[in-house]
Amino acid sequence: MKSSDIRCIENLNNRTDVFDVRWRVTTLCNYQCDFCIQGDRKAHLKQAEGESADIRGQVCGRLIRMLEDLSGYEAVRVSLIGGEVTILDDFPSILERLALCGFPGSMMFDITTNLSRDEEYYFKLCDIVRKKAAGKKRSLTIGASFYSAYETAQRFTEKLRNVFLYSGMPQEGNPVRLTGGVPILEDADRDVLIRMQHDFAATDVRIAPIFIRNYETKTTPQIIADLHEQREMSIRVTDINGGVYTYQNIQALGAELEETDVFCPNGYLCDAGVRNLWIDAFGNVKRCPAIGSTMSLGSILEGNVRLLAGPQACTSDHCSCSQYGRIEKK
Ligand code: SF4
Ligand code: SF4
Predict the structure, then answer these.
(1) Residues near 191 by Cβ (< 8 Å), separated by ≥ 6?
(2) Nearest C-alpha to atom 3 of ligand 2 is from which residue?
(3) Which helix (H) or strand (E) holds 237?
(4) Ligand 2 pocket, 314 CB below 6 A?
(5) What's the CATH fold of domain 17-219+272-307?
(6) How is 142-210 classified by DSSP, letter by letter?
(7) Is residue 149 within 8 Å of 157, Cβ to Cβ?
(8) What is the Cα–Cα distance from 98 to 67, expressed in whole angstroms?
(9) What is the DSSP letter of 10?
(10) Could you tell which of 6, 262, 324 is best to mutate to test the pocket of ligand 2, judged by most ligand atoms within 8 Å of the CB?
(11) How many other C-beta atoms are found inside a 10 Å radius of the C-beta of residue 34?
(12) Which atom of ligand 2 is the closest one to the Cα of 266?
């Protein structure tokens, strides 16, 4: 397919009845993976200059007020992302304040972590939704990724198992869910993945391969091809002739285009910003985190956040996130 043939891209995970908030609580991380989209350690530190527990607390308070005033939605998904949120000692209190807030509908919290803290830290997070917010329709998904440069597979598996045993999974109605991920950077990672999948085969913890886009791995192409069968499709693309195709994500679509061909969303109508907010560590709000997108939706700390009334033209030359429900040619 040529990028000029793309008429519409739909995000299959997007739900029109759920308001979606993604808050990058911190850009700091205790690891320095060289494939990290945030850049190297220096870049993490640069972006994080000025971050503090005080500012996070203020952003959290304003977000709570906004959610309590939100009308028309019975459910909110709140993704709390980094960097690595679990390096913050104040993070459990942020989750607790959000979980105990007065939003009357369901709140689904998503956390991604490198699982570098001891088990007790994650037990605390489980307790917030299982015990402190019991009866308030709150749920928590902890997505843990394994990074072999910083942790042994044995210790990662042990921690994940301990958190699983503590979480109450798979009891009916239990609000905590765990998933695991293994980046596939070299052939040995396939063996680690298979071992972990075997270790958790009798549980509801799904362990999936993570494919790093735009990063040269040492993995044999056949291994990548075999593991690709485990991909979950998250976007549906319709071309100008009515042909329909599915892809794992928008980066995977990009990889299918010819080498010099790039999908440029600039000018396409996109509904990011209508039912969602992207908030950075300082409370600045955008419709999505795309670099080059000038579409600010205000500042949560200044109290001037406004949602879009309907889809508007994208102003970015590149789209890599999943903040949209639908991107469509005008
Ligand atoms: S753990 Fe995640 S956020 Fe931290 S450096 Fe690695 S890829 Fe980046
Ligand atoms: S970059 Fe943002 S505004 Fe543009 S298409 Fe992607 S999600 Fe929509």
Answers:
(1) none
(2) 314
(3) strand 235-239
(4) yes
(5) TIM Barrel (3.20.20)
(6) EEEE--TTTS-HHHHHHHHHHHHHHHTTTSTT--EEEEEEEE--BHHHHHHHHHHHHHTTTSS-EEEEE
(7) no
(8) 9
(9) E
(10) 324
(11) 10
(12) 4
Supply the angle between the helices 91-99 and 119-127 in degrees, to the nearest 10: 10
Instruction: Report whether 25 contacts 81 (CB < 8 A).
Output: yes
Tokens describing residue 199: 């270790």
Atom of ligand 1 nearest to the CA of 38: 8
Placement of tokens 């994208």 in the chain? 314
Q: What is the pLDDT of residue 275?
A: 96
Pocket of ligand 1 (CB under 6 A): 29, 31-33, 36, 38, 82-84, 114, 147
How far does residue 308's CA lie from ligand 2's centre (Å)?
Answer: 13
The residue type of 109 is: F
How many Å from the N-terminal Cα to the C-terminal Cα in the chain? 19
CB-based burial, 196-227: b 16+ in 10 Å, e otherwise:
bbebbeeeebebbbbbbeeeebebeeebeeeb
Tokens of 263: 């999908």
How many angstroms separate the CA atoms of 187 and 101, rounded? 46
Protein residue whose Cα sits closest to atom 1 of ligand 2 = 319
Residue pair 65/31 in contact by the 8 Å Cβ criterion: no
E strand intervals along 243-305:
244-247, 269-270, 276-279, 284-286, 296-299
Among 17-21, 70-74, 87-91, 221-225, which is the least confidently predicted range?
221-225
- C-beta separation of 24 from 82 below 8 A: yes
- Give the bridge partners for 286, in sequence order: 278, 296
Q: For position 294, what pLDDT does the model report?
A: 63
Q: Specify the residue for token string 């607790």.
A: 96
- How is the chain split into domains, by residue range? 17-219+272-307
The string of pLDDT tens digits covering residues 53-80 is 999 999 999 999 999 999 999 999 999 9
